[in-house]
Amino acid sequence: MHLLKKALLSTFLLCLSVTAHAADQLMVMNAWIPEMPPVSRVMAGFGRFINQTNKDIEITGLSSPDFGRIEMHLSKEVDGMARMIPQKSLVVQPKASLELKHGSYHLMLFNPVKRLKAGDSAIINMTLANGQTQSFKAEVRSTMDDMKHDHSHHHHH
Ligand SMILES: [Cu+2]
User: How far is the CA of 62 from the centre of ligand 1 (A)?
Assistant: First the structure.
């Protein structure tokens, strides 16, 4: 009887510690959304997803109070044409990172609830294959800043 109690207690503690560290398993860094003209009903989401565990982490679903719908896409050149291929999930390899960027994997954020301008941020909720959920904040940034930045670089050459 005493042994059973001990076994149950250790199982319970194990579950607790897993839950406590769940938020740390997939780190999201530099999450950002390029600002779009007011008429646009779709925005892109970029960032770096870092898997600190020894197992694959699979993102199977995304939602946001700030958008109607979120899809996962992969940009690919097909017969010389840039195409976006919807992905059922995104897998981040163990002890590795997945960069969501222009021309590669990215998030597609449909139907913003309100106009999001540079400096605003959006909350994005992820559902993982193991049933856990995690959220991160993505900052809206003006792409004009990037262009100015590139331009200034040219002057140095
Ligand atoms: Cu897309």
Answer: 14
CA of 143 to the centre of ligand 1 (A): 17
The overall pTM is greater than 0.70: yes
Helix H or strand E segment including 5: helix 2-25
CA–centroid distance, 83 to ligand 1, in Å, is: 8
Q: Residue 132, SS3? A: coil
137: exposed, middle or buried (Cβ count in 10 Å: 0-12, 13-18, 19+): exposed
Q: Distance between CA atoms of 76 and 59, rounded to whole angstroms? A: 20
Q: Measure the CA–CA gap between 35 and 54, rounded to whole angstroms.
A: 36
- From ligand 1's centre to the CA of 18, what distance in Å? 34
Tell me, in angstroms, the distance from the centre of ligand 1 to residue 139's CA: 18
Residue linked to tokens 């044409």: 81
So what's the pLDDT on residue 144? 73
Looking at residue 54, the DSSP 8-state letter turns out to be S
